[in-house]
Specification:
Layout: E1 2-5, E2 8-14, H1 15-21, E3 30-32, H2 40-45, H3 51-63, H4 69-79, E4 86-88, E5 93-97, H5 107-122, E6 129-134, H6 138-147, E7 153-160, H7 166-173, E8 179-185, H8 188-199, H9 202-207, E9 209-212, H10 218-234, E10 241-246, H11 251-261, E11 266-273, H12 278-285, H13 309-315, H14 320-326, E12 327-331, H15 334-348, H16 354-369, E13 376-380, H17 388-395, H18 403-406, E14 416-419, H19 422-430
Parallel strand pairs: 5-13, 6-7, 6-9, 7-8, 8-14, 10-11, 10-13, 11-12
Antiparallel strand pairs: 1-2, 1-3, 4-5
Helix pairs in contact: 3-4, 3-10, 4-5, 5-6, 5-10, 6-7, 10-11, 15-16, 15-17
Bound molecules: pyridoxal-5'-phosphate.
The site of pyridoxal-5'-phosphate has 16 residues, from α11.
């Protein structure tokens, strides 16, 4: 399989190069030159296949012969070690629980698969690889945990000081080993900017082997297509699927678009955003206008310049009407998010996290504005306990913290604090 950059459709790299470099050298994002459809019989047989079998079939389409089947099977078995159950709320809404991984968020799928794919690719090299990752919360913990102890790879997690929850921070600052946490005095966008700049910095490129683990890496997107198929397998209805995706950088939604292109019968995607409303504004006006991110209760979606938008635009050949025919989008405030958490608790006895709650709001909004009786599958992207303070405020009762989350709360935080000045980071990184 060949991959091109969203900035240049005429130059191709192989899967390994796309994974190991993360971002294309021209600053674009990698996309596969074609998204191979799965056979009709694959979809018909889906209910007889295990989650691992489904995943291997899909991944193989994106990777071809660059990783042999036995190895790919092993990578997937070691990555997807947890289920993604579909829970019915009523005849209109179901919840796809993507938080059963080690860090209780959907990013575990991508991070674990990417870590093991990179480990496979660097096995025969003697140079250390440095993973730079900017996080608004969940990416950091998923990536850090995904790479923890992986031979030959160091991870640098850049995060905005004071802008991630205590639990999130503990999850990636207490690991030690090959994981370094860098606390930036600034916003998530500052962190992302520093990472992007480092990747095109010739001086650094000459001295350090780097790769990215943000949702821009194609190895994060591929495993995110798996659970769209897994949801289809569990869903009663087998056509006209609607997925509602709480979105920030739009990696999850892009993976859904891959799944649709591969033949999954999806009718509609609903892109739910918090008050960082760049995408719904883009759909309604046709103008992409990035803004500084705003802090909200659903902070993993606090993104003012969604990086995967260039992929989405490319997948639709820059045809806004086409995009609008497939993706519906709306934005919701923190206040609405709080009442949605309470409503879901009261009506369905389900404790939803703030990101899922924004999804629920968008799903309701879609039902109200569009005549469509199909069931909506809402992606629940994190466990409510990761955002216990917000959820408890909404429902007025304690959220039970799972053991694997509780454990890291008692470990000592280790981080390096630097300003949002690129040169300060560069100086630290070059000498690390
Ligand atoms: C990262 C994240 C999102 C947003 O996903 P994107 O792929 O960046 O759109 C939503 N919810 C949670 C809990 C997340 O961690």
């Amino acid at each position: 399989m060949k991959y091109y950059s969203t900035n240049n459709k005429n130059e191709f790299v192989d899967f390994k190069t796309a994974v190991m470099s993360g971002l294309a050298s021209d600053g674009g994002l990698f996309l596969p030159d074609r998204i191979p459809p799965l056979s009709k019989s694959f979809l018909d047989e889906l209910s007889n296949l295990s989650t691992i079998e489904i995943a291997v079939n899909i991944a193989d389409k994106f990777i071809d012969d660059e990783i042999e089947n036995n190895t790919l099977q092993k990578i997937i078995e070691q990555s997807i070690t947890f289920p993604s159950p579909l829970v019915e709320l009523n005849e209109s809404f179901s919840i796809l629980e993507l938080f059963h991984g080690p860090t209780l968020a959907f990013k575990d799928f991508g991070a674990r698969f990417m870590a093991r794919t990179m480990e496979h690719f660097i096995k025969d090299e003697n140079e250390e690889l440095n993973i730079l990752v900017a996080t608004s919360g969940d990416t950091g913990s998923a990536v850090a945990n995904g790479f923890l102890g992986v031979e030959g790879i160091n991870v640098f997690v850049l995060y905005p000081s004071g802008k991630v929850s205590k639990i999130q921070e503990q999850q990636f600052t207490t690991l030690g080993n090959n994981i370094k946490a860098i606390e930036i005095e600034g916003t998530f966008d500052d962190c992302q900017k520093i990472v992007k700049q480092a990747f095109v910095d010739k001086e650094i490129i000459g001295r350090k082997k780097m790769s990215s683990a943000n949702s821009i890496n194609i190895a994060r997107l591929i495993p995110q297509t798996f659970y769209y198929f897994d949801a289809f397998k569990q869903n009663r209805e087998k056509d006209n699927l609607i997925f509602c995706v709480p979105s920030g950088n739009f990696g999850n939604l892009t993976a859904g678009l891959f799944a649709k292109k591969m033949g999954l019968p999806v009718n509609k995607f609903i892109a739910a955003t918090n008050s960082n409303d760049i995408f719904p504004k883009y759909l309604s006006s046709g103008i992409f206008h990035p803004k500084p991110s705003k802090k909200t209760y659903s902070n993993a979606m606090d993104v003012g310049n969604p990086s995967n938008l260039s992929r989405i635009i490319d997948l639709f050949n820059n045809d806004l009407d086409e995009i609008k025919s497939v993706i519906y989008s709306n934005t919701f405030s923190d206040e609405e998010t709080l009442s949605a958490i309470a409503e879901v608790r009261n009506e369905f006895e389900y404790v939803i996290d703030p990101h899922g709650a924004v999804g629920y709001l968008a799903a309701l909004d879609y039902k109200k504005n569009v005549t469509d009786s199909s069931r909506i599958i809402i992606l629940e992207t994190a466990h409510a306990a990761k955002f216990a303070d917000v959820v408890e405020k909404a429902i007025g009762e304690k959220v039970i913290i799972p053991v694997r989350l509780e454990e890291c709360m008692h470990k000592e935080k280790q981080s390096i604090m630097i300003s949002n000045d690129y040169n300060e980071f560069k100086n630290y990184f070059i000498h690390s």
